[in-house]
Amino acid sequence: MRRRVAIVGYAQSHHQHNMQKTREDMVFEVCKGALRHAGISREDLDTVITASTDFLDGRTISSVFVGMAAGAFLKDESKVEEDGTFALYYALMRVLAGTHDIALVEAHTQGSTMNAHQVSCFTLDPQFDRQIGVLNDIAAAALQARMYMNSHGVTDEHLAMVAVKNLSNAAANPWAHRKMAKVSVEEVLGSKVLCDPVRELMMSPVSDGACAVIIASEEKAREITSKPVWIEGVGSCQEAYIRDRDLGRLESLKTAARTAYKMAGIKEPAADLDVVELSEKFAHEELMAYESLGLCREGEGKRLIEKGTTGKEGKIPVNPSGGALGADPVCATGLVRVIEAAKQIRGEAEGCQVPKVRRALAHGQFGMCAQKNMVFVLGGNGS
Amino acid sequence: MKRRNVAVIGCGQTKHSSRRRDVNVAEMVSEAVYNALEDAQVSAREVDAFVVGNMPGFGGVAQPEQWIAESLGAAGKPVLRIATGGTTGGSVGQGGYYVVASGLHDMVVAVAWEKHSDSKEAGATTGLLHVGLGNFFHAAGYGLSLKNLVATSVVGAAAGVAVYQAMFYMHRSGCGIEHFDMVAAKARRNAAKNKYAHLQWPGCTAEDIAKTDIVTYPFRYGHICPASDGASAIVVAEESLARKKAKQPAWFKGLASYTDEENQLQSENFGGVGVTDPSEQRGCWLSAVKAYRMAGIVDPKTEIDVAEIYQPFPSQELFFAERLGLFDEGTAWMALETGETEIEGRMPLDPSGGVNATNAIGSSAMQRILECALQIMGKAEEHQVPKKVRNALAHGWGGVTNYSTVTVLGDTPGR
Amino acid sequence: MGYLKDERPTTIGVEGGWNLGAYHYKGSRLLEEYVAGLKHKKLTGSFCPGCARVIVPPRNLCGRCHRKMDGRKTVSDRGTITCFVVSPPIYKGKLKVLGMDPVEIGLVKDGQVVIPVFVKFDGSDSNTDTVLLNADPKDVHIGMRVKVVWAKELQGSLADVEGVEPI
Known about the structure:
The complex is a heterotrimer.
Chain A: E1 5-12, H1 23-38, E2 47-51, H2 54-57, E3 76-80, H3 84-96, E4 102-110, H4 116-121, H5 129-132, H6 137-152, H7 156-170, H8 185-190, E5 193-195, E6 198-199, E7 208-217, H9 218-224, E8 229-238, H10 251-264, H11 269-272, E9 275-277, H12 283-292, H13 301-307, H14 323-326, H15 333-346, E10 359-366, E11 372-379
Parallel strand pairs in A: 2-3, 2-4, 9-10
Antiparallel strand pairs in A: 1-7, 1-8, 4-7, 5-6, 8-11, 10-11
Helix pairs in contact in A: 7-12, 12-13
Chain B: E1 6-13, H1 25-40, E2 49-53, H2 56-59, H3 64-67, H4 69-72, E3 79-81, H5 88-101, E4 107-115, H6 133-140, H7 146-157, H8 161-173, H9 177-191, H10 206-210, E5 214-216, E6 219-220, E7 229-238, H11 239-245, E8 250-256, H12 282-295, H13 300-303, E9 306-308, H14 314-323, H15 332-337, H16 354-357, H17 361-377, E10 391-398, E11 403-410
Parallel strand pairs in B: 2-3, 2-4, 9-10
Antiparallel strand pairs in B: 1-7, 1-8, 4-7, 5-6, 8-11, 10-11
Helix pairs in contact in B: 5-17, 9-14
Chain C: H1 30-38, E1 43-47, E2 54-55, E3 61-62, E4 67-68, E5 71-75, E6 78-84, E7 116-121, E8 128-131, E9 145-150, E10 161-166
């Protein structure tokens, strides 16, 4: 990278169902919170990038009224219309370009404004799939899960184990939405079948929530904080449309991870990474992601969950915060993962803290069956 | 820190018209992308990443780049989607710059589009109205009277804020409705020389426009931009590639996109009540200041050779030209009278016909960057300005009057 | 010579509906305060302790100071027109409001002109949009002094302000 860039401040909301706050108030609180966390003021910002989508927010130009709340008044501002990690990617590029030094990234969705699963239908090919009306994101995910399970001998129990791990981890996370400390495999398997094999507890809850992250160039970061979290690697990739791709694997996540690893100098992800935060909108995506991220060989994802390797006490803890199964404010989900990863590195993760984290991976996704993926590798002062 | 030199090396757009019923979105967008790749003489395989954008409400498809990834040639590559309303195209073009300038990628395609005809009543049901729909229902719950709604509809019919903007500007500068006729006539006349433009009227005069009915004073039917279908794309590359691929690359010299306070339309918290004069446009002014500083431009009046201004309504060409520092406060209409803003004039404004002649919303602000690049590369064909173009200014405007994008392109990199 | 037009081949058109009835927006309580004031002929604005601006109707956040506008101030019901628009005459069948013809349901007379205006009420720093009543369109100008026309029966709703009229 052309210059070192660090995360210097962040804040997130209490993700929940039907938050009794307006979108603006919610955004204002997280942005103010992130500025306070970094110990800087709005005047210090050079640029503001927000993430939200028109369909989820229920208004054309979804960013237009949150600019003031995000602190963008008379600032160089822009919006990406997808997951918050892409907003972070854009902000990072602005800082790397040397045109800006301090950037605020904000992402939000109030899932209760419009059913996110209904919105997913609008991303389909309008001339064919939308007319036929068979697919939405849950149905597509179920197809993907079935393909993956079939080719690697993964059972419903494996998916339930992922849900149990994440939901019980979420119980220790004060910001999470779906917290279930004592959930069992039977309970997950017994929850409502939405689209076989996807059950209610294997799918992320649609939450209302927002989060904000502040990044800064090296010189500024060192002025702002003694605990900067460096962005060591970044990679992104988009796959072809669901009908044009191999649904049974996350090829784009693999490409994104490879790019990020190369940048960060990671050769053995399973050994080099201390914690991983994934945006798994469905339980099976976590198993697929293990393989795409190179934490294990292809088809071996189920072994990691069987052996507890990815549990909070395991060798490579994945989603100690509960991941997306714990809370899924659609556009903010990926950026929340970045925050959780940064918290682990700074030792601020409270109940979710994993010992000795020097390097963490945060993942964001967007689109049906994780069509777009973004991978960030973060590192602390020591690495 | 030294900035990376970045240039536009290829431009592609589609023919714009009110109904492109011969193509669907995927075909239309790839038409622009492949025109751009052909212009730059590069293959799709050489492109590292894509930046895309449109306003999803108009086409009725959310995140359409997911569906059309394969047609774009974007599958298996990083794709960044940027959407900021009216400035979408400008934001996407600037996104293209940042992707390359960051050093993460060396060559990207930035493409923006709109297919208005895909929604049955163009822009009416799912488009701009939706900006404030939530607030409208909110206010209706507190007894918003129907009589007030009639007033809103009357103004809304002539695209709301633009009417107020025009009134503010007329009051401030002393220009009249006849100047709007002149701007609109110039736009249609220039568009006739641009084979991709929508409303083309060879030899159109201010008198022709003046014959059309008043929609809402001070706007006539002849003043108002069309709703077009169309796409435009640029290929952006870093210095060594740019020098290899293009005889005359159009270098990004300065850019910014400052946002101002919202006007008129209201948000959930009743923010955005018309706090400021909507023709004041501080965001545009600040963007211009930053872009000029980056480009090392001290006196835009003499150093900018041609400007593409986002003017869906003719009044906007005038006050934005002033905001961008091309004319003194309140004098743009005088320059118009003396023909300074014609293609052959001292400060040609919108030689392509501008948004007033072609408005595929997502693509409109991108077209401004693209047209500036064409002028610098000398590829603008019939609407090429006769003088040597060293610096060209591309402007975009949108949101609820609060968004601006300003991009300065030049024939040499940096200062 | 008029506009140039060209013919193009067409593909198959696919008709598709777009049900947008499912939105559930979140609103603030500010309007409640505002309409409560209207019932007593009071125009309530929010006051920003950071920059001392007063905004009518009230709003929650000040973007400049990046803080909540938690103060309240009552402003005068007299003010100055800062901008206006004169509509063309509204005839039957020309305009639709919520699917209804405003002339047919008696909101405006056939051929009537509507004048939406921005008003800066004395003591406020914002332009409030409303309509100008009881005025000749020829006399309207920026800087014109106006006052609120209150409804005969105040109900504590936005309709309590019928518009403004010249002083």
